[in-house]
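Ticket #4471: structure output looks truncated?

Reporter: J.K.
Steps to reproduce: submitted the chain below (445 residues) through the standard prediction queue, then opened the result file.
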Amino acid sequence: MTRSTTQRGNTGAAGSTWRNWAGNVTARPAREASPASAEELAAVVRAAAEDGLRVKTVGTGHSFTSIAATDGVLVRPHLLTGIRRIDREAMTVTVESGTPLKRLNLALAREGLSLTNMGDIMEQTVAGATSTGTHGTGRDSASIAAQIRAMELVTADGSLLTCSPEENPEVFAAARIGLGALGVVTALTFAVEPLFLLTAREEPMSFDRVTAEFDQLHAENEHFEFYWFPHTDNCNTKRNNRSAGPAAPVGRVSGWLEDELLSNGVFQLACSLGRAVPPVVPALARVSSRALSARTYTDIPYKVFTSPRRVRFLEMEYALPREAAVSALRELKAMIERSPLKVSFPVEVRTAPADDIALSTASDRESAYIAVHLYKGTPHRAYFTAVERIMTAHGGRPHWGKVHTRDAAYFEKAYPRFGEFTALRDRLDPDRRFGNDYLRRVLGD
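Returned output as attached by the reporter:
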């Protein structure tokens, strides 16, 4: 006897290959499902259990690790989208898990609301972004997951579990950044605030100056980040601070020139040339690092925090104790200068306050993030291995959705509450219904 399509949650045929955004991860699931409700998703999980299959959900594939890959049931959440409710008294919004951040940001802005902080890309689903610890930069405001006030998920036995600081608090403490290991997220409730304005000040600065003044720049600005261009002494800095207005957005023409033509179109050509002819990379880096001029503009948050990213790449990012960031960055610069490496992508540096989420890269410590990228198709192992050696020497914690080689033995030492998370996983998913090879490596089995 076979189950109906409805019972399986719109289960699709087997055999299609899934690829992530960067193209470095593929999976061939036994079947796919596209549930349109939490109840349909629960049915998918129960059916998978009966058939002895594992279950993983994929969002938009913006993780560079195989965190979402499966040979079992691949759940696509594109029907689990939209805002369930806005509570203006509590100042929260409850949103379906498959909703892209872009749609959430646009919908909130229309309602005169905003998240407090966000990353620089908004293509991800809300569940994918939070489950992997996606973050922006902030002196006082933390990752997207730290803005969660309640959540709902389907657990391994097919039941629906809600959690918050008051309801199932031990699950809430871990599941906000759950790596897909504790259940399938179906809805998230975020704290929101009235829509506000940010003034962005973008300015070139030398490597020596920005590293010497890093602590001061961090302390004086609500959101500070900078990009260093390898093979040069040049950086681009960005300071975002709240503003009383009036709004003064980037001009349509100048915005297109800098954000599309230079940052995407010309940069794409430069990366392609550098991949084909590596010796030209340093010269291209010197040109690229001087291409963007200083500018100041004021706009609503998502138009300041986020940028279009059309050039595809691979990325590794480590969170360090904030006081270690400058030393690690100087070591990184020295390593590149004495090596034959040719690095076409800038190195990104951001910060975050400590939070209380068990597997957050900022868990219990104020953090700085150093992210390295390479153009898609460029051999990356030598560069990323050298970077990882520097970062781990400083007690770094890798981003869960970006390239790294760490395992459970490392994380047990890196995260004081690692055992708390794995014990909860043993309770919620003893048969590893939501497991895969990546989770076996990073969490143990």
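Triage note (M.O.): checked the attachment and the full token line is present. The longest strand covers residues 197-206.
Status: closed, working as intended.
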